[in-house]
Specification:
The protein is α+β, with helices and mostly antiparallel strands. Helix content is about 20%, strand content about 25%. Strands 2-1-3-4-9-5-6-7-8 form a 9-stranded mixed beta sheet, covered by helices on one side.
Length: about 200
């Protein structure tokens, strides 16, 4: 499948317009138009932006990409079984084991095991191992790893609705978290990063 088709399918599935994609990612509309027409494909930094926005891997975006797009060596990424504070990341505490992954800047990534089925409708099943890119911001619609209200780390769909920011489950009943105001303070959400891909249990 060509990248243009993959991008078109993602926009359709998530009901996102090219205008909204441009506005929320900072990508130019003319560039997105060229991608959709199959004139060009994104550079590596633009692929990372799209990967974070849609919550899919770069491999998914490129649909079995040629070797030129793959990092040359797999690197070890830590898997955390649970995270109780942002300080856990990088401290060496809470690491259960490591998985090899092909990513650039491996220090910006970690895996987190999903407990429960609160995100099963999004494709993240109970006991899945999810690759997360470390960052403290997110775009509307992305799946994020977070520590809402001081709870243990979990995954939620991040939504911006007017003056409110929400962290919503997509599966079994679970807590939702809402912040409101002209500039919602998301520090209490303690965003750890954006989900990139999921290794679901067999």
């Amino acid at each position: 499948m060509l990248f243009a088709q993959v991008l078109g399918n993602l926009l359709e599935q998530k009901e996102i317009t090219a205008y909204r994609l441009a506005k929320e990612t900072g990508l130019s509309q003319s560039l997105i138009s060229d991608w959709r027409k199959g004139k060009t494909i994104p550079s590596s930094d633009k692929l990372m932006t799209l990967s974070r926005f849609f919550g899919v891997s770069i491999d998914y975006l490129l649909d079995n990409p040629p070797a030129a797009f793959q990092p040359t060596e797999a690197v070890r990424i830590p898997i955390y079984g649970s995270i109780f504070s942002a300080e856990t990341l990088g401290s060496g505490k809470g690491i259960e084991r490591y998985i090899d992954a092909q990513v650039e800047n491996p220090e910006e990534y970690f895996y987190l095991s999903m407990a429960g089925s609160s995100m099963s409708a999004s494709g993240i099943l109970s006991n899945a191992t999810v690759l997360v890119h470390r960052q403290d911001t997110a775009c509307d619609g992305q799946i994020v790893a977070c520590l809402p209200m001081g709870k243990t780390a979990t995954f939620r769909r991040f939504r911006c609705c007017g003056d409110a920011a929400l962290l919503l489950p997509e599966g079994a009943p679970a807590d939702s978290f809402v912040w409101s105001g002209t500039s919602p303070d998301l520090s209490e959400a303690a965003l750890l990063g954006v989900a990139v891909s999921s290794l679901n249990p067999l």
